[in-house]
Specification:
Layout (H helix, E strand, L loop, with lengths): L4 H13 L2 H8 L3 H15 L4 E3 L4 E3 L1 H27 L5 E7 L1 H8 L3 H7 L3 E7 L13 E5 L7 E15 L1 H7 L14 E3 L7 E2 L9 E2 L4 E3 L2 H9 L5 E4 H10 L3 E2 L9 E9 L6 H14 L1
Parallel strand pairs: 3-4, 3-5, 7-10
Antiparallel strand pairs: 1-2, 5-13, 6-11, 6-12, 6-13, 8-9
Helix pairs in contact: 1-2, 1-3, 1-4, 2-3
Keywords: DNA-binding, Transcription, Transcription regulation
Family: Belongs to the LysR transcriptional regulatory family.
GO biological process, one term: DNA-templated transcription
């Protein structure tokens, strides 16, 4: 017997969701229906794709190999459906977008209402990760990346640039004093990133040239966490304009050491795989973002 689309979708959904229950929710099916589809698939292939324990589900070596083929098949079906929609000039389908939490919250989310109004046939799925992800493994159509790109297998569409500034809350400055020179930072609480270390080199002129390596007294994995800490008066932080412009305009955060700050602008790009045909839903999303963020 031939493998069915339903069985492939069930298999991929179980892997993505980490459980049969999560897959059933994602596909709007019953748990028993998903379980039967998996059993049929393994019987047809005469192999075990998943190891099931009481705590989790793991892919076997055969399951890993079959998953790659499954994802390619499902992607081909998505592209075929999108091609038909494009013929009708009505972009439609699911669009999976990944970005760091701060950019998603401060740059993408405010644009969602207008995008949905312009393209009601596109179903957005917004996911956040603080580190770069594998687009194919995470079934992501578009990822938004901040900083210099390393992966040559990806197409990149420049969206905008965003300037870095050293900031603090008025409450913190009233309590700790305003630094008058870069050397004064030694007497302040500095907020920084767990990783990568390069994010803790601030764009300040000093003995080290146009970058000042800091030793944070408190670190976090997310820029949004650091922003909230700065707003609460915990310390000084170096963050990008896309997430702090509103705070500066309202006076909740104040730029410090402006005369010592180098004009460093982070490039922000939307990326997708080179071997991916630019589907209508992806193209219109990129055009929409670029027009409003540039």
């Amino acid at each position: 017997m031939k493998t069915t689309l339903e069985e492939l979708q069930a298999f991929a959904a179980v892997v993505d969701g980490g459980s049969i229950t999560a897959a059933a929710d994602q596909l709007a099916q019953t748990v028993s229906g998903i379980s039967r589809a998996l059993s049929r698939l393994e019987k047809k292939l005469d192999t075990t794709l998943l190891r099931r324990t009481t705590r989790r589900i793991e892919l076997t070596e055969e399951g890993q190999a079959f998953l790659q083929r499954t994802r390619a098949i499902l992607a081909s079906i998505d592209e075929a459906e999108e091609s038909m929609a494009a013929r009708r000039q009505q972009p439609s389908g699911r669009l999976r977008v990944n970005a760091a939490t701060p950019f998603m919250l401060h740059a993408v989310v405010p644009l969602v209402p207008a995008f949905r109004s312009a393209y009601p046939g596109i179903q957005l799925e917004l996911n956040t990760d603080e580190m770069n992800i594998d687009l194919l493994e995470r079934r992501t159509d578009v990822a938004i990346r901040i900083g210099l790109l390393q992966d040559s297998t990806l197409h990149a569409r420049p969206l905008c640039t965003s300037r870095l500034r050293v900031l603090a809350s008025p409450d913190y400055l009233a309590r700790a004093g305003k630094p008058r020179s870069v050397a004064d930072l030694a007497g302040h609480t500095l907020l920084g990133f767990n990783q990568p270390e390069s994010l803790n080199r601030w764009p300040l002129r000093g003995a080290h040239g146009d970058e000042w390596p800091t030793v944070p007294g408190l670190t976090a994995s997310s820029g949004e966490t650091l922003r909230q800490l700065a707003l609460q008066g915990v310390g000084l932080v170096c963050l990008s304009d896309f997430m702090t412009a509103g705070d500066r305009e309202s006076g909740r955060l104040v730029q410090v050491l402006a005369r010592d700050t180098v004009d460093v602008r982070q490039p922000i790009n939307a990326v997708y795989y080179r071997n991916t045909q630019l589907a209508a839903r992806i193209a219109c999303f990129l055009d929409f973002l670029q027009e409003r963020l540039a």
